[in-house]
Amino acid sequence: MRSIYDVIKRPVISEKSTALAEVGNRFVFEVAPAANKQEIREAVQRLFNVKVREVRTMMMHGKVKRVGRFETKRPNWKKALVTLAEGQKIDFFQTK
Questions:
Q1: What is the pLDDT of residue 25?
Q2: Which of 22, 29, 30, 44 is 20 to 30 A distant from 15 in Cα terms?
C-alpha cells in the first residue's frame, strides 16, 4: 500500500479544471502512474476528508519540446478526474 502522498502528486490548476470544480464538483489531480482508481479514491477521501463519488483516470502523453536545436520529450503523466458527492467541497485556496 502506497502512502496517500505517493498517490496524489499535486492538484492541476487550470482554467478548465477550475470551471469543472465550480460547475460539476469535479477536481483534477496529477497522480502516480501506477496508482489505480481505488487507491486514488482512498487517498482523496483521507487527505481532504470528503466523500468521492467517481474517479476517472487517463494517461497524458508528454509533449515534444525544443531546447535550442534539439528536441526533447517531457515525461508521460497520469491525470485523475475526481467527482465528489453532493454537498462536498475541496477548497485549495482558503481565504479568511
A1: 92
A2: 44
